[in-house]
## 1
Amino acid sequence: MSEIKVLIEGYAKEKNGIEIASSSTALIKNNNLKILVDPGSNKKLLLKALTKEGLKPQDIDLIFITHYHPDHILNIRLFPDKDILDDDIIYREDKLISFSGKIPNTNIKVIPTPGHAYEHACLLIETEKGKIVVAGDLWWWSEKEKQKLNIKV
């Protein structure tokens, strides 16, 4: 069984006319692997969250990216020697290794969910509490769009 923990709750807000955003980040433990999903763009927040878990960037085994928007991927620079996975490719240095169905050496199912971005994918994870889906961006509204649509989040 996998364990999953949301390390960072993502945010998108406006401050002084500037959009500020970083994705939610999840930590999955499966078969002695530590998989970080969407490391986000706020370096200080990610390092603080890892430290709180007793982890350093080098303790992470794999990085899974739900899609390639900068608010989800900028912090991959903290993991220069780690495999980066998307919906069907493992990026290992200059190698692109195809896979399908599940993250290799785990029971974590990868589900392509194009829409928000062409390459978007979700993870289906079996835990003791039941099945959990890590979905990246379920929806996205800028502050201006939320005001226009009168959306309260």
## 2
Amino acid sequence: MPEGDTLRRTAAGLRPHLVGRTVTAARARVPGPQAHRLVGATVTAVEAYGKHLLIRFDSGLELRSHLGMHGSWHRYAPGELWRRPVARARFVMDVPGAVIVCFDAPVLELFETRAEPVHPVLAHLGPDVLAETFEPDDVTEARRRLRASAAARRSIAEGLLDQRALAGIGNVYKSEVLFIERVDPFTSVDTLDDATLDALILTGRRLMRANLGVADRRTTNGDRTAGGQRLWVYGRASRPCRRCGTPIEVRRHGELPRSTYRCARCQVVGLVGPVADEASTMAAQHRRPGE
């Protein structure tokens, strides 16, 4: 599923071809948004918030998309051959000089921009981890939301995916951030201290912002122990940990089962008892100076 950095890059790619241009034609698959209402309107903004792409118009309308697992936005020159079958197009919008197509998105919604503060989804999103300004108050609010009510009893892996706590982090960054901060993914949120939660939030922001300008995500940041590879643990089940050599584990869990990757030797924060003591000793033996 596209994560916040992907949506930011998508918005940046569409913005120069949409903002300030008037819609000359629009159509959507039925059931779907009433695309004809956009004809004659001028695009005023293309923004991303978490995993949502928002296109705003001077008519007061706004188009929201959530791409799910397989959705994507494409831009074509008029008459250019599309890279996906026409049957997979959910929404098509023509503006002078460009044709904008949304393929395979499970969520496309047209509503009035003034309704954003009470929107059933947008109004409840947590702080956007990729916001241009991300103040200490945003970290505090994200931490508060992680700890709120039943959420605190879930694993931290599930908590980081909760867009109502922190908007933008998805499955890849979840696993990578937890590995970098040496936190066991299956530890419940309420057993972690504030410093650990803050570190997870800020590391997530750092990694995602570092990847805004690139197509291939990298979380290793040139770390020599990673051997020039892009990711620490995600997608590496049964392969050796890049730090200690222990086989990487993968487990599907949560209400909507998602795969979480971890190194049982390196990720010891949150573990308790004799197993934690042994794992912590092993991790320390493989820890690089200064870590």
## 3
Amino acid sequence: MTKYKILLLFFILISLSLPAHVAFADTGPKPTMQFEFKQALPDGQVAIMSGILYECKQPDCSDATPLAEAGPQRITCDTLSCSALSYGFSPYHKLEIQFLDGKTRQSNIFETAGFDSRYTVTIRPDDLLVEAQFSLTALPPTILILIACLCALVVIGLIIGLIIFIIRRSKKK
């Protein structure tokens, strides 16, 4: 019996001596959206007060729901720009911005442009026009790595082909 008590005591001491680690399940990159505003108003510039990003699964945004604030997921705005971070965006969106001039303007319906999306938002007198900006950072990192590998293979293939061509040509002379 004492053999089992010693073994039990040994396991208890080992488990107490091991450090307790906290596991973080929320790691890794999350998709983002950056909104750059440009003015198209005759009165001059207006500053942003707050913003709501509506998420939609339907192309007509008939099922629009605001992006929920959960952990780091949210939309934040300063006086000249807005940015959003999410665990995963819906395919379609609509932006609603309240400005310091007292007006609330809504945007057209727009699609997610990529993992790290960038948009230009034109402030018009009655609404907003959101247009996606193309950037390589909008592509997921794995696709960028795949493209780089394919380009490297093509370049290596061309170099090897050129070397073979030069060797065969020199043997003919």
